[in-house]
Every structure is written in C-alpha cells, then in structure tokens.
Sequence to fold (211 residues):
Amino acid sequence: MDKPNLIESIIPCSGHYSLKKDLHLNAWLAVATATYVAELYLTTRHPDWSPLTRGLIALAPLIPGFLYIRGWLQFIRGLDELQRRIQLEAFLFTALGTIIVGTVIDTLNASGVSLGFLRHGLGLGGAFMVMFTLWLLAGAVVNCRYK
Amino acid sequence: MKSKMRELRTLAQWSQSELAERLGVSRQTINAIETEKYDPSLPLAFKIAALFKQPIEEIFTGGA
Fold:
C-alpha cells in the first residue's frame, strides 16, 4: 500500500520533517519571491520602459506562483482523505480570511483612515503573509477538531 | 456513525499505526474513525471491510 503524504513532513520540528519534501514543495515559492523582488527592482528603476515590457515583468512572478500552486495540489492529492479534508477546510478559511482582510483594508483606505504602509492595499507580499498566517492558524484549529 | 473498528483492530492485535499502514492512510485517520470524529469515505470503508473480512454494515452502523 502506498504511503500517504504527511503534512508533518513539511513542518519543521514535527518529528516527521523531510527537508527534501519541503524543498520539493516550496522551491517554487522561493523562486516566486525572488522574481517578485526582481520585478519590484526593475519596475521602480525603469519607469521609462514600455507599458508592455513593464506589464510582462510585473506579471512574471505569477509563473512560479502557478507552479507553486500546482506542487501543492499534487501534494494534497497524495494526502490521505482526512488530511486532505483538513487542508481543504484550512485553505477555504485562508482564502475567505484573505479576501476579508483585503476588503477591510481597501474599505478603510477608501474612507480616508490612514493605514501607514498598507495605504495602497494589501499587495502581493502582504497577501502571501496574511495567507500563510491564516493557513497555519486554520490548520491548527481544524487539526485539533480531529485529534 | 458508530464503528466496530477499534474492536476488530484489537482482535487482530494491530496497532493504529499498523492498521493505518495496511490501509494506506495516516494514524490520525484511524484514530478519528475509532473515536467517531470522522466518517470514512465509501472507498476507505470498503477497504476496511475487505481487510477485516466483514460486511461494511457489520463494521459501520448509522446513528450519531
């Protein structure tokens, strides 16, 4: 019988942590982050470039982003059914939570409330951070329910 | 859903981990089924029934 993927295999200090599996799953996130940083650098340093070039550069982080999502989908497909259910519930919570946080920030900005570094909205980096935090939180809560 | 899985597993003298390995699921899944916190999918229920050589309705019965 094939062994199912374990979510603990990508959580450090969980006792089942596998660096190989973690790197395999999260390497595209590192590439996406590096591409995003390069994109920010290029688009701020070269405002003179054509809109098409700037647009293509701005969208470049989406490619490793999609590959990252694909890796996750493959990993989730390999989880056993309870883990898959836990992760899907956690992802649903994460997606809805991020939409709510983004909407609240935009609404506050539109009403003139000063939000400091969030005055232009959540942004890609902020959205990733909110999603990661909410996923950890939701995973822990849903996991406890089935303990 | 009520389940006789713990009883059958104990009779077979398997640990939760052993049963999990035989069924290709995690130990947490076995525990959640035994403590009635989670109802297995139909394919998993069939696997459990086949492993214990019992009809599904003997192992799992309705009711909260």
Q: What stands out?
A: The CA atoms of residues 5 and 79 of chain A lie 5 Å apart.
